[in-house]
Design brief:
CATH topology of the domain at 245-401: Jelly Rolls
Domain RING-type: 14-53
Structural class: alpha+beta
CATH architecture of the domain at 245-401: Sandwich
Order of helices and strands: EEHHEEHEEEEHHHHEEEEEEEEEEEEE
Domain B30.2/SPRY: 214-403
Strand content: 15-25%
GO biological process, one term: innate immune response
Radius of gyration: 24 Å
Distance between the termini: 41 Å
Strand order of the largest sheet: 9-10-21-12-17-18-19
GO molecular function: zinc ion binding
Shape: globular
Keywords: Immunity, Innate immunity, Metal-binding, Zinc, Zinc-finger
Number of strands: 21
C-alpha cells in the first residue's frame, strides 16, 4: 500500500469541500470525493454530473468507502494534529515548564493541571471562562475592550464581548456564544443524519475543541479554512460599469438606477448589458471572493480580460464568462454550454466564488449553508480573470464582502 509520504496531499483533497478526504468514495468515472460531499451534490442536482470531468453520475450508485485511500487520508490528518505545537503553562518556571491543559480568557494565561487548581476552588476564579489550551489567546479577546468574546452578533455574524453590546452592536441581535454553538452543532448533526452518516457526525463533533472554541475560531470562517487562504479583496471598476449602474464610493456596492448616466462610452465599458467587472484581474493559481446577493435577479462569476463588452452578450465559457445567475426570484442556472438549471435547497444570501487556474476550475458556494452550488471543470483560462457582476432593476444592491 502506498504511504502517506509518497502520495501528495493534493491527490487526497476533495474538490468539493477542498479538504483532505473523509470516508472517500470513487465514482463510476474514477474520481474520488468525500462520501457526504458527492452524495449531497448528487442528491441536490437535477442532472448530477461529476464535478471534475462533467460525466453524468449514476443516481443509483451505492458508494462504498475506498479503504486504502481512507487509511492514507487519516494518516495525513493524524500527522497534521501531531504537528500542532503544544501550549506550555505560563505559570511554570522555565526549567520545569509543563503542558497547559486550559487557557483562561479573563487572565489571558494558560495553566497546567497544578496551576489551574485555584480556578477550581476560588469562588471569583471559578467564574472565569476556560477553554482548551491555545497559543493565540488574543484571537479570543475583544481587541477594542480587551474582554472575552463570549457573545455572538447574529446581524454581523461575529463574536463580540459584553461591552460591544453597549456601543457598535447596541441594537443588534446578540446571543451567548454557547447558545449559538449549540445551534450550529445541531445544524451539522441534522444535515449529516439526513444523509445516514451518523457515525461521521459523531466523529466530526468529537473533533471540535468545544462549543466555546468552535464558535470563536469559526464564526469568521463559515466555509472550510482552505478557501479563505486564497481570499482576495475585490473592488468594482467604475470604468467598466454600464451607464445605468451606480457604485458606492468604496467600490463595494452596485445598484441599477434604471436611468442612464452621461458618461463616456469607453472601450472598457459595457454599453448594452448592465454589467461591471472587478478593478483587479487575477492570474495566480487560486483565488476566492464572496458577494452578498439580492433575492430577485443577478449574475456573478468571472470573465476573461478580452471579452466583448459591447452589444448583447452570450454568457458562457466559449465567450469567456464563467457565471451563475438568478432570474424571476426562483430560477437559478449555471451558464455552461448548454445552460444547466440549478435546484438549490434554499436561496443563497452570500455566494462564494473559487477559481483554480491549474485545475481549470470555477466553483460557486452558498456560504451560509456551506453548500456547493456548481463547478465549471476542465476549463482553460488565457490571461487574467476578473470578477464579474450584473445587476437588474428593482433589486437590492449587490455587496462585496471583505473576508
Amino acid at each position: 500500500m502506498a504511504s502517506s509520504s509518497s502520495v501528495s496531499k493534493k491527490s487526497l483533497t476533495c474538490s468539493i469541500c477542498l479538504d483532505v478526504f473523509t470516508d472517500p468514495v470513487t465514482t463510476s468515472c474514477g474520481h474520488n470525493f468525500c462520501m457526504v460531499c458527492i452524495r449531497s451534490h448528487r442528491d441536490h442536482s437535477p442532472c448530477p454530473r461529476c464535478p471534475l470531468c462533467g460525466r453524468e453520475l449514476d443516481s443509483k450508485q451505492d458508494f462504498s468507502i475506498n479503504r486504502t485511500i481512507k487509511e492514507i487520508a487519516e494518516d495525513i490528518k493524524r500527522k497534521r494534529v501531531q504537528e500542532k505545537p503544544e501550549v506550555s503553562c505560563d505559570s511554570c518556571p522555565n526549567k520545569k515548564m509543563r503542558t497547559a491543559i486550559k487557557s483562561c480568557l479573563h487572565c489571558g494565561t494558560s495553566f497546567c493541571e497544578s496551576h489551574l487548581e485555584p480556578h477550581k476552588t476560588a469562588e471569583k476564579l471559578m467564574k472565569h471562562k476556560l477553554i482548551n489550551p491555545v497559543k493565540n489567546l488574543e484571537e479570543y479577546i475583544c481587541k477594542n475592550h480587551e474582554r472575552p468574546l463570549d457573545l455572538y452578533c447574529r446581524d454581523d455574524q461575529t463574536a463580540i464581548c459584553q461591552f460591544c453590546t453597549e456601543s457598535d452592536h447596541r441594537t443588534h441581535n446578540t446571543v451567548p456564544l454557547e447558545k449559538e454553538s449549540l445551534v450550529i452543532i445541531s445544524r451539522i448533526l441534522n444535515s449529516t443524519m439526513k444523509m445516514n452518516k451518523i457515525q461521521q457526525t459523531k466523529t466530526f463533533v468529537n473533533q471540535l475543541q468545544g462549543p466555546q472554541d468552535y464558535l470563536v475560531l469559526f464564526c469568521k470562517h463559515l466555509l472550510h479554512e482552505p478557501l479563505y487562504n486564497f481570499s482576495v479583496d475585490v473592488t468594482l471598476d467604475p470604468d467598466t460599469a454600464h451607464p445605468e449602474l451606480m457604485l458606492s464610493d468604496d467600490g463595494k456596492k452596485v445598484w441599477n438606477t434604471g436611468k442612464s448616466q452621461k458618461i463616456p462610452d469607453t472601450p472598457e465599458r459595457f454599453n448594452y448589458c448592465s454589467c461591471v467587472l472587478g478593478k483587479e484581474g487575477f492570474s495566480s493559481q487560486k483565488f476566492y471572493y464572496e458577494v452578498q446577493v439580492s433575492a430577485v435577479e443577478w449574475d456573478l462569476g468571472v470573465a476573461k480580460e478580452s471579452i466583448d463588452r459591447k452589444g448583447d452578450i452570450g454568457l458562457n465559457p466559449e465567450n469567456g464568462y464563467w457565471t451563475i445567475w438568478l432570474r424571476n426570484r426562483t430560477e437559478y442556472a449555471a451558464n455552461d454550454c448548454p445552460p444547466v438549471p440549478l435546484t438549490l435547497k434554499e436561496k443563497p444570501v452570500k455566494v462564494g466564488v473559487f477559481v483554480d487556474f491549474e485545475e481549470g476550475l470555477v466553483s460557486f458556494y452558498d456560504v451560509e449553508a456551506r453548500y456547493h452550488i456548481y463547478s465549471f471543470t476542465g476549463q482553460s483560462f488565457p490571461g487574467k480573470l476578473y470578477p464579474y457582476f450584473s445587476k437588474f432593476k428593482n433589486a437590492k444592491c449587490i455587496r462585496l464582502i471583505h473576508i
